[in-house]
Every structure is written in C-alpha cells, then in structure tokens.
Design a protein that fits this description.
- This protein is of the alpha/beta class.
- It is built from 26 helices and 24 strands.
- It is flat and about 120 Å long.
- The chain starts with a helix and ends with a helix.
- Mean pLDDT is 83; it is low at 779-790.
Length: 790
C-alpha cells in the first residue's frame, strides 16, 4: 500500500465526522439568524407600509388645511346666492383642490355639508358630472359630528369603489374659525377623501408575498408567538402581518439543502487539500530541490528556498543558498541606494518613475486598470516653520511607515492588486494601484489613508494637526499616458485642497469643467459692471408680534454669459481672487441707499442686516468704509447689523477681534450668523461682542422636533441670558414656528414668512399683509417666563 493511500484511510473518517458536526452547528446558527432576519424584514416592510400611509395622511391634512385657510372657502360659506356660490365660488374651490392634489391620485373628493346635514357642495375627481357623496362619506360625517375627538382622519377599508382615507373638519362661517365640540351643530362640515393607491398596492403586494392578509384595525386581537409583526400606523390604527406557515417552511428547507450540499463539498475539498499538503511537504522535497537548482541555473528564479529538512541535502542547500545570497545582496544594495528616499526609506521619485512605467506597460498588455493617488500633507509647512525641520522629518517618517503598513493590509485583502509607494518631493507622496477589474478597493484605501491622519500626529508629547489631501485618476478612464495620469491626479489633489483639505477628489471631466467655470467666473467678476448685473433682495425677519424688525440684504448676480450664478459659487472665488472688497463695497453702498425705502415699508426702527466677508476683517478699512457710507446716506449706525459666520467667529484672532470691536464701538450692531454649524465654545459665546445670535436652519431643523423642545428652550434662554437677541433662520413650517415661539425666540426668518424679495415685491407683500389685517402675522404666545412656569 502506497503512502498516499495510507494517508487517505487515516484522514477520510476524521474529516467526515468534523464536517458533519460543523455543518450541523452552522445550520442551527443560520436557522436562528434566518428567523431573526425575516422578523426584521417583516418589520421593515410594515415600516414602509406605515410610511406610505403617513404620506397620504399628511397630504390629506395639508390639502384640507390649505382649503380651510383659503379665501375661496370663506367667500363660499358667506355667500347667500346659492347659484353663484355653487357655480362660481365652487369652481374656485375645485381649482384650488386640483392645484393642490397630486396628479397620480385616482380619486380625490371634497364635500361641504351644512349644519343640518345636507351637502352644500361636492366635488370628486371622476368623469361623472352627477357624482354625490356615497354612504360611507355621509356616515363618516355623522360620526364626526357626534365625536368629541379633535382628529378627523379615518381610514375605511370597505368603502364604495375601494378603500378611502377621509379627513373631516368643521368651520364656523361667521368667524371662519374651528368650533368647539359643543358648537359643531352650528358649523359647516368639510371632508376631504383620497384613495391611497400606493398604500393599497403595497398592502396587496405584502399579502401576495407572505400568503396572508394584512390586518388593519383600531385594536388587534392577541396571537400565538411566532413570526409576526405589528405596527402603529396612526394614533389609533394598527397593522399586523403574520406570514403563512408555508412561507418560512420553504426558506428553512432551502437552507437545509444548501448546508447539506456545502458540507459535502467542504468535506471533499478538505480531503483533497490535506492530500496535496502531504504530497507537498512529505513526499516531494527531493524532487523540489532538483527543480529549484535547475531553475536557478536557467535564471528562472532569484534564490533557493529555505531547506525544509536536515541531512546532506539540507546542508548542500544551505551552502548553495548562502553563496547565491551574498552575490545578490551586493547588487540589491546598490539599487536600494539609488532608488530609495534617504529620509523615509521608501521609493524616491526616480524609482517611482521606473515602477510607474512598468505597471503602465503591464496594464496595457494585460488589459488591467491602473490608479494613481497623489497625496499632499495639509499644514505641513506650519510644522516646519513653527517647530523646525527635525519635527517635520520625524513626521514624514511616521507618515511613510503608517502608509506602508496600510498598503500591506490592502494587498492582503485584495490579492489581485499591485501597489507602489513613493515620496515625490517635500510632503508630496504617490501611490500606484493596479487591479484587474473593478476599483481594486480604491475607495476603502482612500478612506483608510484619511483615517491615518485624523487626530493628527503625536510626537514628543505634542500633537501636530496634519492631515492629507488626496487626488485620484485612473488609466485608461482618465488618461492615456503615465504623464497625463500623474498630472490629472495632481489636479484632483488641488481640488481636494480647495474643498477644505483632508478629503479625496477623483478626477473627472466635470472637474475640468468646474475648473474652467471657476476661471470664467473669476474673469467675469473682474470685468463685470455691478450696476448692470448685480441686484439686491431682502429677507424680512419678524418679531413675536408679527412686526418686521429687520431685513437681511442678499446679493444676486445674473451674468449675460453665465446666467444666474449663486452666491455660494462666486463668493468663495471672489475671496480667493481678492475681489471681495469690490463686492462688499457695492452691497454696502446700495443697501444703505435702499434703507429709506425699507423705512417707508417697515418704520424707522427697522434694522438692515449686511453680511460681510470674513476676509475683510484683516484690517479696519471695512470699519472706516461703513462709517463713511452710513454718514453719506444718512443712516444711523445703530440701524445697521453686520453679520459674521459662526465658524469665523470661533477663529477670531486678537487682530481681527479688534476690527469687530471697532465696528461695534462705531455704533453698528454685530450678529453671529449660522450659529450651530461651527465650533464656537461657550467661553467664546460669552466673550464675543455680538448683539444677535442667528440660529442656522440646520440646527433649527433638528431642535424643533417635539423631543428636542427642552433643548431648544435651553439654547434660546442661554443666548438671551447673555443679553443677545435670538433670530431663527429657516422657519418654513408652522410646526417649527410653534416650537420656536414656545422656546421664546425673539425673531423669525424663513420661507414661511417670506422668501428673499426685491423692494417692489416687498411692497406688494406688505400690502397683502395689511389687507389680511394680521392674518399672516405670527401666532402670539404668553411671555416666555409664563410658558416656563407653566
């Protein structure tokens, strides 16, 4: 019996038993995981069903509220001429409904029911001109009149024509207000009904997938434990889905077959692997040594392997290996000296050129992809300037070691990829990544490189805040030569610097277009005539009583060549090009010239808020210009508020703080803009010379959620305790407005109140507000002290 057959008889029963135990254990574990996954997926499906339901419910409520607040409904309720009311005013209501309704809805109806229960008006999105309220709609109206509940949203599964979502509300025609429950007998009933097609479709899809109905009811009966999920759709409406038993049985059957097949396959693979290993390390050393010597003589290999056993063959292998390694070591040392960077001990620029050419030729011949990562250390010059070149050299060595370790890990996870790493010059490095298909893990590699530098570098008990900016380019996607590949990766790296450093930018045609557009914008800014292309718009801010307290001036640019260019695009370009004094001067001068017209609209106490570029605060010329222009236009400095971003306020040096103090001492007001998105500390907030804190719309969006009301109250109270007025930006919904009123906020600004408007549009806006006799004013709340006490 041969040695191979003996080995097979020994290992076969052992492997078979081990694989059987492992497969059984793995099946039980995966079975539990499958059940848990199905439970989670079931809950996720019901969450999607809930989301669809809530979309229709929110749509229903918002459309009904819009109709209730419309002038057409008020005129309809107060019109005594029935024919005129039903034909003309009813048509206006119908047009309002059509404009507010989603065109994808197959059924929308709106009904007005008189106090005696007879329909005064009915409209539905059907082709029938004689459509009337069905029995379900009439029943919901009667039940709503008898109910004391505030909410009138009802979902009816078994309605004529299909399920309906109905929202019912009441209004008193005399006062145009909602009645108390005791006054509903005197009020008109308004009912909006829609057919929630997407909700119904999703419900039927779930029922078909799981082979069981979706239960929807105000109360759900208890069921036996098992695979099931229930979800609260609305305040008093639940949904539950319990899959049919055959659903999970089929999946467990498939899992069992998969483990049976996989266990058998693993058993065969293990046996084959062990047999190969035995042949490789037990029966083949002699033939292997002969093959190595032959390949070494024919220059097919660089060195002999380490001997795997002793004896004469082992000693001969050691002697031959030693002789060959001494000869090759001398040659390798010469190459290392000429190809290695003396500081970091990685490839230098010359060796990188050789490696790049070699990998590029391989990529062409083997149809592979080649990526180049251009790395530049951020803030490295400051380290050299402030702490000396020794600290800089130590930092470069540490960075190189970290990257080398990272590349080793990357090759372990992507064995089909090749990498090369080199220092090009100073704090510039490059990485080549060759891969067969796909991206070769490039995104993960870039993120890992950024992570290496997060938190800076710690040397000699000092932390240096150095990060890395990365630009990437691909062959053949972005370049058709190694020189072009390097150039375009370098371009992408400079874009990463421009985007705030410590980031990755991939080269693209859009990047080239973006660079071309930036150059074009800069050229246009240098040559443009502000009087012909710039214009000012104003965004009012209201106090708690609804009065306009201040107007923020905003710049708009429409170029004959570029079209409309947003401030977020051209302001950074202007600051980098040193053109910001031209823009700020134009805005300040024209806004102050417009101030008398703002006074005509809003009164003598209205404040003009002007944003000033942070780069203007490097000297006091901006302060002198503000004083001179205010005097020229006859505007009191106390009526002007200079807005600075919170991020810049947090970084103010002693010199720029002197400029801010000078502006304030001249009588101008100062505001911290975009508060909540920067890094202002409590100490800086206490010391910063500001009159107003403007809460950024991002923090408003977070803190106006019901669960964050107390945090919002505390933030507003803290700012007010420092004698600072609080202005909330981004007020675009009644819910945000209510939360901010509750918190005691002083001023309100946002699209719910008014978008940025020209002076002419502001005049029309004020005329509408005046005609509405305060209908657009903010809802008043008790004083903040009373709110907190309650």
């Amino acid at each position: 019996m041969t040695l191979g057959k003996r080995a097979l008889l020994v290992i076969f029963p052992v492997i078979l038993i081990i694989q059987l135990i492992a497969a059984t254990t793995a099946y039980l574990t995966q079975r539990a995981s499958l059940l848990g996954l199905e439970q989670a997926r079931l809950a996720q499906q019901l969450s999607a069903l809930k989301s669809a339901y809530l979309d229709y419910e929110a749509f229903n409520r918002s459309v009904l509220y819009s109709i209730i607040d419309s002038e057409a409904l008020l005129l309809f309720l107060r019109e005594s001429d029935t024919a005129f009311r039903n034909e003309t005013l009813g048509l206006r209501i119908q047009q309002s409904i059509r404009s507010l309704s989603n065109t994808k809805l197959t059924f929308v109806s709106f009904a007005i029911v008189q106090p005696d229960g007879t329909p005064a008006y009915y409209f539905e999105s059907s082709l029938s001109p004689f459509a009337t309220m069905n029995a379900t709609q009439q029943r919901i109206v009667r039940e709503a009149r008898q109910s004391s509940a505030v909410s009138g949203m009802v979902y009816v599964e078994e309605a004529e024509g299909g399920p309906l979502l109905l929202d019912t509300d009441f209004i008193l025609p005399a006062s145009s207000s909602r009645p108390l429950p005791s006054q509903r007998a005197e009020a008109f009933t308004l009912q909006l009904a829609v057919r929630p097609e997407r909700f119904i479709k999703l419900k039927r899809s779930l029922e078909q997938e799981y082979g069981a109905p979706v239960e929807i009811a105000p109360q759900l009966a208890p069921i036996e434990p098992g695979l099931s999920a229930d979800m609260l759709l609305s305040r008093s409406l639940y949904a539950r889905l319990t899959p049919a038993p055959e659903y999970i049985a089929e999946r467990l059957r498939t899992l069992g077959l998969a483990f049976l097949a996989g266990g058998s396959l693993m058993c065969l693979i293990s046996i084959a692997l062990l047999l190969w290993l035995i042949r490789r390390y037990v029966t083949g050393p002699i033939s292997e040594l002969d093959d190595q010597l032959t390949d070494l003589l024919l220059c097919r290999r660089a060195a002999l392997d380490e001997p795997s056993e002793g004896g004469e063959i082992g000693r001969l292998t050691v002697n031959m290996k030693t002789l060959h390694e001494r000869n090759t070591a001398a040659l390798q040392r010469i190459q290392e000296i000429s190809w290695t960077d003396s500081l970091t001990q990685i490839s230098n620029r010359a060796h990188f050129g050789i490696l790049a050419s070699s990998l590029y030729e391989q990529s062409i011949e083997q149809h592979k992809r080649l990526a180049l990562l251009f790395l530049d250390l951020d803030n490295f010059k400051q380290v050299n300037d402030q702490h000396g070149h020794d600290a800089g050299d130590a930092l470069l060595r540490m960075f190189a070691r970290r990257v080398q370790g990272l590349l080793r890990q990357h090759r372990d996870h992507h064995p089909d990829s090749e990498t090369a790493f080199a220092r090009l010059s100073g704090d510039e490095f490059a990485i080549l990544l060759q891969t067969g298909t796909g991206d070769g893990g490039l995104p993960a590699l870039c993120e890992a490189l950024l992570e290496l530098c997060r938190g800076g570098f710690s040397l000699d008990d000092r932390v240096y805040p150095v990060s890395v900016s990365i630009g990437t380019a691909w062959y053949p996607d972005d370049a058709d030569s190694i020189t072009q590949l390097l150039t375009r990766a370098d371009t992408a790296m400079y874009q990463a610097k421009a985007e705030g450093k410590s980031t990755v930018v991939a080269f693209s045609a859009a990047l080239e277009q973006h660079n071309d557009r930036m150059r074009l914008i800069e050229d246009e800014l240098r040559a443009l005539d502000g009087e012909a292309q710039w214009r000012l718009v104003y965004m009012p801010a209201l106090d708690r009583e609804g009065a306009v307290v201040s107007c923020e001036v905003l710049l708009r640019w429409h170029s004959p060549l570029l079209g409309t260019v947003s401030p977020g695009e051209f302001i950074p370009i202007a600051e980098r090009a040193g053109l910001f004094p031209k823009i700020d001067s134009w805005v300040i001068d024209h806004a102050l010239a417009d101030y008398p017209r703002l006074v005509e609209l809003f009164g003598r106490q209205v404040i003009l808020a002007i944003n000033v570029s942070s780069a203007q605060l490097t000297d006091d010329r901006i302060c002198r210009y503000l004083i001179e222009r205010a005097a020229h236009h006859g505007v009191e400095p106390g009526r002007i508020e200079i807005e600075l971003t919170e991020t810049y306020a947090a970084e103010l040096s002693s010199d720029t703080m002197d400029v801010v103090q000078a502006i304030r001492q001249a009588g101008f007001r100062v505001a911290i803009d975009d508060f909540g998105v920067g890094y202002t500390s409590i100490q800086q907030l206490l010391e910063y010379p500001a009159d107003t804190i403007k809460l950024d719309m991002a923090i408003i969006r977070r803190l106006t959620r019901p669960d964050m009301q107390e945090s919002l109250n505390a933030l507003v109270a803290f700012c007010q305790a420092q004698g600072k007025r609080v202005n909330a930006e981004g007020v675009d919904s009644l819910e945000k407005q209510s939360a901010l009123l509750q918190a005691g906020c002083d001023l309100f600004q946002g699209y719910l109140i008014s978008p940025p408007r020209s002076l002419a549009a502001l005049r029309d806006w004020m005329a509408v507000r005046n005609r509405a006799e305060g209908a657009l004013r903010l809802e008043q709340l008790p004083p903040r002290a009373e709110v907190l006490a309650g």
